[in-house]
Design a protein that fits this description.
It contains four helices and 23 strands. The protein is mainly β and 437 residues long. The strands form five sheets. Strands 1, 2, 3, 4, 5, 6, 7, 8 and 9 form a nine-stranded antiparallel sheet that branches. The longest helix has 18 residues.
Length: 437
């Protein structure tokens, strides 16, 4: 995940398509709403060097639509200061979005059609915690427009300050903490991200990507037959601990598919086959062509944060930003770190039902009860979907409708397979959360 987030900055400087990680949005597709982000030009802004055009009534991003040409975008975009046409981009600065100094980028494919656009936030703060406030402010505005994100992740690459919220800003600028939230509409994929390195924020941006206009013209080659390898994965060397017997991570089953945007996904589950709890369970994929040459690699993390001995967790790994047309096979490996931390126990799914909704998406509704002995928050329900042979074919997650659950309290939840239509033979549900401090 860290690699994905760090790579997103390139999108604001190069024409690269961003796609979401495949987690469910929990609702059927809806038309793209009009953005509510506050856009304010600075006093020094100057107009674009083109005639004025009439903005669209229902734009995909700001006042433009996917598929527009450079000339059409230049005629419409009047905020900020036009910098230059750089390759397949139009760049603007001297712009404020939600009060933040911002660089605006429009990206065009090789046919000259607009397929993505975004903001790189350039506001500087002496207190790094303020960057998190800025991120949450932008996120709240996006929620007002698009609803709850389809994916909302806080990833700890190092837990040095995990239990000290006062130092989370420092965790961001040292690369220990990464924020990523994603939304989807029928026409657009949206990603908000925040990360840093070397004591500065290096990636703070908001990217909109068309789900209709491709980033490039697809090669006229046929879709290859994918042959995933399922050889045993050797256990990674765990972090030394006080106990002589350590845990082992193992990949149990996986399958693959291509999403509507053409990106390759590996879905599967990992299991803790040892005798200690593990965290930061990382799944790494290596992609090969027909000649067994390496053509790419990606990674993700398990959906559950901590796995106790014998516990399984699903994962969904995407090939974004590469579509890998020459892919013939792949290999997955697992790494992890042992931990003495314990997941919060006593969070239980007490009832649930499943159906296919009117749009053709698989939907699960249910209820979670807190019997942990303490108030719980961030209560996350993770679903793993299986075919008739027990192979994982998908995974989704959602959160309880209530933000916090007191002892003995229940809360409903709803989970959808959107944007993917699947028909699993069966599924499993797991719950995690944390105690309110």
């Amino acid at each position: 995940m860290k690699k994905v987030v760090l790579g997103l900055l390139v999108l604001l400087l190069l024409p690269v398509l961003f796609s979401c990680s495949g987690e469910a949005a929990g609702a059927p597709p809806t038309p793209t709403p009009t953005p509510v982000l506050t856009i304010t030009p600075t006093p020094s802004s100057s107009p674009s060097p083109t005639p004025t055009a009439t903005p669209l009534a229902n734009p995909d991003f700001r006042n433009v639509a996917w598929g527009m040409t450079r000339a059409e975008v230049l005629a419409i975009e009047k905020e900020g200061r036009y910098l230059a046409q750089s390759g397949n981009q139009l760049l603007y600065d001297d712009l404020k979005v939600e009060g933040l100094d911002t660089l605006l980028s429009y990206n065009f494919n090789i046919e000259g059609k607009l397929y993505s656009a975004g903001y790189r936030f350039q506001q500087q703060h002496s207190n790094p915690t303020i960057y998190i406030y800025d991120y949450n402010n932008v996120k709240d505005k996006l929620i007002e427009t698009y609803g709850a994100p389809s994916s909302d992740k806080i990833v700890w690459a190092d837990d040095l300050w995990k239990d000290d919220p006062n130092n989370w800003g420092m965790a961001v600028i040292t690369g220990y903490l990464i924020y990523l939230a994603e939304w989807q509409t029928e026409a657009t994929e949206i990603a908000l991200f925040l990360s840093g390195d070397n004591y500065e924020v290096t990636n703070f941006g908001l990217v909109y990507t068309s789900r209709i206009v491709p980033s490039s013209t697809p090669a006229p080659s046929p879709t290859p037959t994918l042959t995933p390898t399922r050889t045993p994965i050797p256990a990674a060397t765990p972090t030394p601990g006080p106990t002589p017997t350590q845990a082992a991570g193992e990949s149990l089953s996986s399958s693959s598919y291509r999403d509507d945007s053409g990106y390759f996904h590996i879905v599967g589950e990992v299991s803790n086959g040892g005798y200690a709890n593990v965290e930061y369970v990382k799944i790494v994929a290596t992609y090969y062509d027909q000649q067994e040459n390496v053509i790419g690699t990606d990674y993700t993390y398990s959906e559950l944060d901590i796995l106790v001995p014998g516990q399984k967790s699903p994962f969904d790994l995407s090939s974004y930003p590469d579509k890998l047309p020459s892919l013939k096979q792949y290999r997955i490996q697992v790494s992890y770190r042992t931990t003495t931390d314990e997941p919060l126990s006593g969070l239980t799914v007490v009832s649930h039902t499943a159906k296919t909704d009117t749009y053709g998406y698989y939907e699960i509704v249910g209820e979670v009860k807190n019997t942990s002995g303490t108030t719980a928050e961030y209560v996350k329900i993770v679903a793993t979907y299986y075919d008739s042979g027990g192979t994982v074919i998908g995974t989704e997650y959602t959160y309880t409708s209530l933000d916090q659950l007191a002892v003995g309290q229940t809360s409903p939840f709803t989970m959808s397979s959107y944007p993917r239509k699947i028909q699993p033979t069966n599924y499993s549900l797991q719950v995690q959360g944390r105690a309110v401090k």
